[in-house]
UniProtKB/TrEMBL annotation:
Its cofactor is FAD. It catalyses: 2 reduced [2Fe-2S]-[ferredoxin] + NADP(+) + H(+) = 2 oxidized [2Fe-2S]-[ferredoxin] + NADPH. Its EC number is 1.18.1.2. Pfam families: FAD_binding_6, NAD_binding_1. Residues 1-102 form the FAD-binding FR-type domain. It comes from the Bacteria. The keyword Flavoprotein applies. Keywords: FAD, Flavoprotein, NADP, Nucleotide-binding, Oxidoreductase. This is ferredoxin--NADP(+) reductase. It is an enzyme of class 1 (oxidoreductase). The keyword Metal-binding does not apply. It comes from Albidovulum salinarum.
Amino acid sequence: MLPDAQEVTSVQHWTDRLFSFRVTRPQSLRFRSGEFVMIGLLGDNGKPLLRAYSIASPSWDEELEFYSIKVPDGPLTSKLQHIQPGDQIILRPKPVGTLVLDALLPGKRLWFLATGTGIAPFASLMRDPETYEKYDQVIMMHTCREKAELEYGRQLVESLKDDPLIGEMVGDKLKYYPTTTREESERMGRITDNLASGKVFEDLGIPSMSAENDRAMVCGSMAFNIDVKAVLESFGLREGANSDPLEYVVEKAFVGDGI
Ligand code: FAD
Ligand code: A2P
């Protein structure tokens, strides 16, 4: 029996580099949609090998969902990618993070800006009724190199319409804007470019971003986060935090890409 053990209930592989899985939820675990926890397995030395993971399921869900990269020689994910239903993982029940609704001032439109597995915290927030109570419109921009990498997010957004719990609240408030950068698809381009050029506002038929109306949450690689921040600041938005709510918040989707 592992310390802080939870049981894997399902696993789905999306590409050779991406998979999602669900685990049982510790009864005492309360979290705010958008937060992350430390999860892992026992390492070869018998000690827990833990990494930060955004909880991709909403706070009302009975189980917990995670969306993961598979790093071929990654200490954790080279093993984690082989988990099966019935296996156990370690989950430290101490949720934290900046991508929470409380860290933003009230506004009209909420933007979720993600690359790669950075969509995970928004998979949680897109399923939280509070998101739709607080905002008139929610825009999910997700960018990956190839189409197959968008599939987890695409199917999740698709499933929301018919969700018995929040389908009605979501209605047509949620706008999904997926793009690829290295494979031809319906919509293309980096999030930074589509915001800076105004293309996304034109395509969705909405006004340009302003500090008065727009709020944003950002989750991607370090390089992406830095570049998006500059674009958001050019629209007049300022970075906030739990203790100081403002117009946007940022979290790293992972560390260690050389910056
Ligand atoms: P590591 O030694 O941790 O990483 C090896 C290298 O792989 C890194 O240097 C980096 O270049 C690359 N890498 C790591 N994670 C990613 C990633 N997600 N996407 C692309 N490249 C990556 N990972 C998830 O898959 N899903 C999540 O929801 C998630 N949430 C996170 C939340 C926070 C706040 C942070 C800081 C990280 C998060 N990560 C997430 C990354 C995660 O903690 C691990 O880095 C990842 O699971 C790989 O672990 P590893 O031991 O196999 O390799
Ligand atoms: P691109 O293909 O033009 O580099 P990665 O797989 O390298 O983490 O990238 C995931 C997605 O994020 C890719 O579509 C990539 O576009 C995009 N991206 C990477 N870096 C940035 C950045 N600094 N600004 C905007 N988009 C970025």
